Amino acid sequence: MRPAAAFLGVVAACLLAPAGAPKANTLVADLSRHLVAISTGFAGTDVLLFGATEGEGDVVVIVRGPDRPVAVHRKSRVLGVWVNTAQMTFDRAPSFYSIASSRPLAEIAPATVLARHQMGLDNLRLELPRAKASANVAQEWRAGLIRNHEARGLYRAEVGRVTFLGNRLFRTRIDLPANLPTGTYQVEVFHLQEGRVVSAQTTPLQVSKVGAEAAIYDFAYQNSALYGLIAILVALMAGWAAHLVFRKA
Amino acid sequence: MQIYLPIAEMPVNVFLLLGMGGVIGFLSGLFGVGGGFLMTPLLIFIGIPPAVAVGTEANQIVASSVSGVLAHWRRGNVDFKMGLVLLLGGFAGSTLGVMVFSFLRGLGQIDLVISLSYVIFLGTIGALMLYESARTMRRRKTAPGQRRKLHQHNWVHGLPLKMRFRRSKLYISALLPFTVGFLVGVLAAIMGVGGGFVMVPAMIYLLGMPTNVVIGTSLFQIIFVTANVTFLQSYANQTVDVVLALLLLTGAVIGAQFGARAGAKLQGEELRGLLALMVLAVCGKLFFDLLVTPADVYSIGVVR
């Protein structure tokens, strides 16, 4: 679509490529758009990622929403009623995670490589402060966090498909649900050969509210007191209008 | 047609919201209740975050109470002096309620407290109403009962700060309505209701107010208490979604009109019995949800 921009993006990405990844520039990729606008009618969308590799190999695409602290509660039964009795806070967890690959992950790379690049939900790095939880307890909380995000469609366990058109050109569709958190997403594209990452690129994807939604949200958070007063005023007028309609009927 | 709610941060079908407003509005018109106690659990049920459901419902109740109170005012059924004392208590109570709400939300216990409050209050009031309407229906069939006294004298009449409430034909301590207003205010803030279903029985049985001024006066003070809750929830928690409130309101206004007409065809005791059954059904559902093993014992909360 915009090869020049895509190329510049790749150059930038290679400069910022994670340490350990070889410097060879064997990958070019770009998104069909870099902004997802959440407006009144927003009901989920998809973004197309396309690109080309130099030489054979596999491609893995990971989409990560901005990291946030997440509090997780655990319920247990107290006098017959289910009550939140324990809480842990993960300092950082991606608000969105999905992955796509050209072949099943296990066939592409050994477990150590998958783990290093956080490929697949199982390899997502979600750590609790060690003082608070032993390893196997932390594992249960981590699984709880992932299940909850999966239930809301924010983490995807199933691996999407990256399709090759011929030997070098590839594309994949990134499905984004309606309840998408806002912020700057990172789309990471990896080119692997013989189980090793030979090239990687990161492209930002901006998700933000626009129009009336953004205006109302910003107003509610920045001028909370005034927002409250306006909400009351709107309700008073609506009630009065309803009374007038009632009286005529 | 989907609409993205800016504060709840989720898309919802417009017609679902209008329909919910319409059905709850119909029931509130039919039974002469605010409907908050039905709407808030329903909003939570369709996936609106409980905190947003409570804050937004307070905003919607402001509007429905205004239209209700204007109708009662024209018939002279509002005791403004009593309303003022109640709402002073209500202001204090709802302010405390919002603070408790924020605190519990941080602890991750707000959902439990909302559910428990519903179960306790709906259960008690539903059972009392059912008993009461069953008794009147039975009594009407057998023999006409004796006329009740206007009100009984007890220890309550020894409290200080006595005030005369002309329209309610009462000479009682101002502390009494203040306390009632205070407690209902706390409930209103935590449960996202106007509190009419607690306020009305309290006014009749505790304060001894005549039935004809009870509804108008309770609506009058509910406007101010829910307005206070709307403001504080917006200010402290940013949980009032005006788009959601407006959509619910539109449906509710239309529904209430049909409900009021249908209500005119039914008898008082039957209505009260039906309302009691509905209240108990909501209570039973919430209670069941507390007892049944959750799908996942882990859940995501709010980071303090």
Question: What can you tell me about this protein's structure?
Answer:
The complex is a heterodimer of chains A (249) and B (304). Helices cover 31% and strands 38% of the residues of chain A. Chain A has six helices and twelve strands. In chain A, the strands form three sheets. Chain A has a six-stranded mixed β-sheet. Chain A has a four-stranded antiparallel β-sheet with strand order 1-3-10-9. A two-stranded antiparallel sheet of chain A has the order 5-6. In chain A, a hairpin with a 2-residue loop joins strand 11 and strand 12 (196-209). Chain B is mainly α and 304 residues long. Helix content of chain B is 71%, strand content 7%. Chain B has ten helices and five strands, in the order E-E-H-H-H-H-H-E-E-H-H-H-H-H-E. Chain B has helices at 14-31, 36-45, 50-74, 80-107, 110-141, 175-191, 196-207, 211-237, 242-263, 268-291; strands at residues 2-5, 10-13, 162-165, 170-173, 298-301. In chain B, strands 1-2 form a two-stranded antiparallel ribbon. Chain B has a two-stranded antiparallel sheet with strand order 3-4. The model of chain B has no long low-confidence stretch (mean pLDDT 83).
Keywords:
A: 249 residues, alpha+beta, Immunoglobulin-like, six-stranded mixed β-sheet, four-stranded antiparallel β-sheet, 31% helix, 38% strand, B: 304 residues, mainly alpha, 71% helix, globular
Please give a quick description of this structure:
Chain A is α+β, with helices and mostly antiparallel strands and 249 residues long.
